[in-house]
Design brief:
heterodimer; A: 348 residues; alpha+beta; eight-stranded antiparallel beta sheet; 11 helices; globular; B: 189 residues; mainly alpha; two-stranded antiparallel ribbon; 48% helix; flat; binds zinc ion
Chain lengths: 348, 189
């Protein structure tokens, strides 16, 4: 079985730099207290309602409904690492939380995160409009079966007033090694903040941007239509992609030796080291990816996003089938990456 | 022994919490506008609630919101506002100010006066210009009835009880016509 999600295949426009596009919609049921205040019997009732709605749609959307407490902690962690659910979602207590995920792992619905429903569509490359089309259709299908909390003046009502209106977060995950290397990244991000966009690290709120991976999303959800918010983000993303490409060209022309040294060193370490922390692995994979994008290193069959999963503790533990302590993980991680990279480059 | 206690520049940075394992996670947190850097091992970072580079968000939207909700140009909020509660779910305005989260969809009506300026500050607007759901509340009930009737009709057909099926079909048609002419103007802007 393929351990990766479809969105990790690095297909779609600008997929070398835009690792993924995501649309997330928050929805709540009418006349039902928000998740942090649910009582046992109300929670059971609403979970049942949502499960039924999802099951109704399961044939068309190939979704599978599962209560979170039926999954092992490692499996929950892997879902976070694959970006299918948020880190906050697996924090205890997970009772009365559930997820619906489709076969390709492009669609996921978190039930009882901060809001009753968080519908998420995740696609590879810059495909925000496409993701919105799917999200919109799925939302329509769910809305036919569930009573949403909606107000014609304020839009979709959410547990936190920061999300009301469209209740939509559109985001892209971008890999910007050259902007970081040329020290333009922070300037770009400051500008983004001024036009209502938020930049975060790889795993959302509060996380560090290891591996030069950034998540950019709209901060505001009210006052514009979904299409307008999406158009703004897509335009900004295209500009950032342009700047990143420009910075790469600049580096290649003006610091070719430095660049070659960096990416070859990264490759050397990844294919020879026996102990590797997750942070080091991610940092090196980012440099290898840059080298591959610039034609300085051979391409591998696995995409960058797929390889980054081998840096993740949950994923490594699910691959080996048992729990690992930090030291063991550092060894397994090094071994997995070493073997995979060597093997794939031989067969390329 | 003594050499070990001598700090060396090139030594591996140890976790600042357990001071035994090498630090591999860099946590930077912002508290009251000041940035703090900490270096932890993965296990400690985990125990502190961080999942692998997912760092504890010390500076969350809730904190910011709390500040915004509490801030009034004239100083203290009147007791009447603090004492306000949602008549449907019983949530108090005070609880909202503490958590940054509302209790239910009706809280938006209950705290409308206080929420509107807050929403304006957060979004720069208070008007929803986005998606309008296909159906309003009344339509939902109708839709459910329709679905029930369709199930009954399919059932009847499966049992080859065609007369009964025709009866359900007529009822479905009548309801559908009613739906088409009545329509919903929910969410019109
Ligand atoms: Zn430690
Ligand atoms: Zn309420």
């Amino acid at each position: 079985m393929d351990p990766f999600s479809a969105w990790m295949q690095a297909k779609g426009p600008d997929a070398d730099i835009v690792l993924s596009s995501r649309i997330r919609l928050a929805r709540n049921l009418k006349d039902t207290v928000f998740p942090n205040r649910l009582t046992d019997d109300v929670a059971e009732k609403m979970l049942h309602q949502v499960e039924q709605a999802v099951n109704d749609l399961s044939r068309t959307w190939q979704m599978h409904f599962e209560r979170l407490d039926h999954l092992s902690p490692i499996d929950r962690q892997v879902l976070v690492e694959k970006h299918l659910i948020s880190p906050a979602f697996i924090e205890e207590p997970v009772k009365y939380r559930a997820i619906a995920i489709d076969e390709r792992e492009s669609i996921s619905i978190m039930v009882n995160e901060e809001d009753h429903l968080r519908i998420q569509i995740l696609l590879s490359g810059l495909q925000l409009e496409e993701a919105w089309t799917v999200a919109n259709q799925l939302d329509d299908a769910l809305e036919r079966r569930l009573d949403y909390a909606y107000d014609s003046h304020s839009g979709y009502l959410t547990a936190c007033p920061t999300n009301i209106g469209t209740a939509m977060r559109a985001s892209v995950m971008v890999h910007l090694p050259a902007l970081v290397l040329t020290r333009q990244a922070s300037q770009v991000f400051t500008t983004l903040a001024q036009i209502g966009m938020v930049v975060r690290g790889l795993y959302g709120e509060g996380s560090d941007a290891v591996g030069n991976i950034f998540q950019i999303s709209n901060q505001v959800s009210l006052g514009l239509s979904e299409e307008e918010f999406i158009h703004n983000l897509a335009t900004v993303t295209q500009q950032i992609v342009g700047r990143e490409r420009h910075a790469r060209q600049y580096l290649q022309h003006n610091a070719g030796v430095m660049l070659a040294d960096r990416v070859d060193r990264a490759w050397g370490l990844l294919t020879h080291a026996h102990i590797m922390t997750s942070e080091e692995a991610l940092r090196l994979l980012s440099e290898v990816k840059l080298g591959q994008d610039l034609g300085l290193l051979p391409k591998t069959k696995s995409t960058f996003t797929q390889l980054t999963l081998f840096t993740r503790p949950g994923f490594l533990q699910s691959q080996t089938g048992h729990e690992l302590n930090a030291a063991e993980r550092d060894q397994i991680r090094a071994q997995f990456l070493r073997e995979r990279l060597r093997e794939e480059v031989q067969s390329v | 022994m003594e050499q070990n206690s001598e700090p060396r520049q090139d030594r591996v940075q140890l976790c600042q919490r357990c001071e035994s394992r090498p630090a591999s996670v860099h946590m930077s947190t912002v508290v009251n506008g000041e940035k703090f850097d900490r270096f932890l091992c993965e296990d400690c970072a985990r125990q502190e609630g961080a999942y692998h580079f997912m760092l504890v968000p010390q500076f969350t939207i809730q904190h910011v919101l709390g500040g915004l909700i509490g801030a009034t140009p004239t100083g203290q909020r009147p007791q009447a506002v603090i004492d306000k509660t949602c008549p449907v779910c019983g949530y108090s305005y005070q609880q909202f100010a503490e958590t940054g989260r509302l209790g239910c969809d009706h809280c938006y009506e209950a705290f409308h006066e206080e929420l509107e300026p807050l929403v304006k500050r957060l979004h720069g607007s208070v008007e929803h210009h986005g998606k309008v759901p296909k159906r309003g509340g009344q339509d939902i009930l109708q839709q459910r009835t329709l679905e029930e009737l369709r199930t009954k009709m399919r059932d009847a057909i499966a049992r080859e009880a065609f007369e009964e099926a025709a009866k359900w079909r007529d009822e479905i048609r009548a309801l559908e016509q009613q739906h088409a002419s009545g329509g919903s103007n929910h969410g019109s802007l």
